[in-house]
Design goal:
CATH architecture of the largest domain: Alpha-Beta Barrel
Order of helices and strands: HEEEHEEHEHEHEHEHHEHEHEHH
CATH superfamily of the largest domain: Enolase-like C-terminal domain
Structural class: alpha/beta
Helix content: 25-40%
Length: 325
C-alpha cells in the first residue's frame, strides 16, 4: 500500500541545485526529497513532464523509500564523465570534475550548434583521454536518419563506444542501425525505453545493441530489472540529472544487474555546484549504498517558497493518480 500524501509531505524538502554549466537546457536542477522507513528517496521528473509520466517517477521514489530493494551484487559502480555541449576549450575543465573516469559521454546535436561543434568537442575529449579511453555520444533523438548517419560517419574516427538515441523513433533507430552496421558502432536506446509505452519495442525491432535504463523514469528497480531481462540486451544505468539521493537509487539498480558491461552514467553529481550529499566520482566510481541528505545543505539549497509550493502541488496530483490505479 502506498503511503498517504500526509506521510510524504511530513518529511518533504524541495531543493534547487545550481549547475556548473548548462546541460540539456537546465541551469538549476529542482527535486523533491522525502524519507520513508527504508531511507530517503527523490521525486524529480523534469518540470515539463505531464502528470501521468511524472507519477511513474513518484512510484519509483515511494518504492525506494518504503520497500527493501534487490540485493546488491557489487559494492561500487564504475561511472562515466558527462560532457555537456561546451566548446572544445572548456572540455578539460569539465573532465577535471570526474577524477579517474575512463569513459566520457558527450552531448551532441545541441540546439543552435552545428556538427562541426560536435566534432571539435569529441576530438578534444579523445585527445584528453588518449587511445585507451572510451567515448560515447548522446544526441537525445535530435537527428533524422540521414543526419545521424552523416554525423556518426564524421565522428567514427574517434573510436566511438556507442551512439545513444541518435534518432527519436524505434523505426528510425532500426533503419540507422542497418546503415551504420559496417562501421561497427553500436546503437543505444534511451528515450525509446524510458519514455515509451512499450519499452520492449526496441528489442523486438532489432533497433538497438544495448539499452539505457534509469530508475526513476521506469518506476523503480524491480520494473527496470524486468525490462532488462525481457529485452535481452546489455544495459547501461544512467541518471536523470538526479541529486545524490537519486543517484544512490541508480547505483542500487546498477548493483543489482547480473551483468554490468559498461560504465554507468551515475557521476552527474559532479555537474552540480553543490549537492545535498557527497556522491561525486572518486577514482572513476561511486559507492553503492543509501544516501542521507546533509541537513545544513538541505537548508542552504532549499528552493523558494513559490517553487516549493509548485512541487508540493505536483506531488499531490501525482499521488492522486497513483491512488486511482
Amino acid at each position: 500500500m502506498n503511503p498517504s500524501l500526509a506521510e510524504l509531505l511530513e518529511t518533504a524538502r524541495v531543493v534547487a541545485l545550481p549547475m556548473t554549466t548548462r546541460f540539456r537546457g537546465v541551469t538549476t536542477r529542482e527535486a523533491l526529497l522525502f524519507e520513508g522507513p527504508e531511507g530517503w528517496a527523490e521525486f524529480s521528473p523534469f518540470v515539463e513532464y505531464a502528470n501521468a509520466e511524472a507519477s511513474v517517477w513518484l512510484s519509483a521514489a515511494i518504492d525506494y523509500a518504503w520497500n527493501a530493494q534487490p540485493a546488491p551484487l557489487r559494492e561500487s559502480i564504475p561511472v562515466n564523465a558527462t560532457m555537456p555541449a561546451v566548446s572544445a576549450e572548456k572540455v578539460a575543465g569539465v573532465l577535471a570534475r570526474f577524477p579517474g573516469c575512463r569513459t566520457v559521454k558527450i552531448k551532441v546535436a545541441d540546439p543552435g550548434q552545428a556538427l562541426s561543434d560536435d566534432i571539435a568537442r569529441v576530438r578534444a575529449v579523445r585527445d584528453a583521454l588518449g587511445p585507451e579511453g572510451r567515448v560515447r555520444i548522446d544526441a537525445n533523438g535530435a537527428w533524422n536518419v540521414d543526419e545521424a548517419e552523416h554525423a556518426i560517419h564524421a565522428l567514427a574516427e574517434f573510436d566511438l563506444e556507442y551512439a545513444e538515441q541518435p534518432c527519436a523513433t524505434v523505426d528510425e533507430l532500426a533503419e540507422l542501425r542497418t546503415r551504420v552496421k559496417y562501421m561497427g558502432i553500436p546503437i543505444a536506446a534511451d528515450e525509446s525505453i524510458r519514455k515509451a509505452e512499450d519499452p520492449l519495442a526496441v528489442a523486438r525491432a532489432g533497433a538497438a545493441d544495448l539499452i539505457v535504463i534509469k530508475a526513476q523514469p521506469l518506476g523503480g528497480l524491480t520494473r527496470a530489472l524486468q525490462i532488462v531481462v525481457a529485452a535481452g540486451l546489455p544495459a547501461v544505468v544512467s541518471s536523470a540529472l538526479d541529486t545524490a539521493v537519486g543517484l544512490s537509487q541508480g547505483a542500487a539498480l546498477a548493483a543489482a544487474l547480473p551483468h554490468l558491461d559498461y560504465d554507468c552514467g551515475l557521476g552527474t553529481g559532479a555537474l552540480f555546484v553543490e549537492d545535498v550529499a557527497e556522491l561525486a566520482p572518486t577514482d572513476g566510481a561511486i559507492p553503492v549504498g543509501r544516501v542521507t541528505p546533509d541537513s545544513a545543505r538541505l537548508d542552504k539549497l532549499a528552493a523558494s517558497a513559490e517553487r516549493r509550493d509548485w512541487w508540493f502541488e505536483r506531488l499531490e496530483r501525482c499521488h492522486t493518480l497513483l491512488a486511482a490505479e
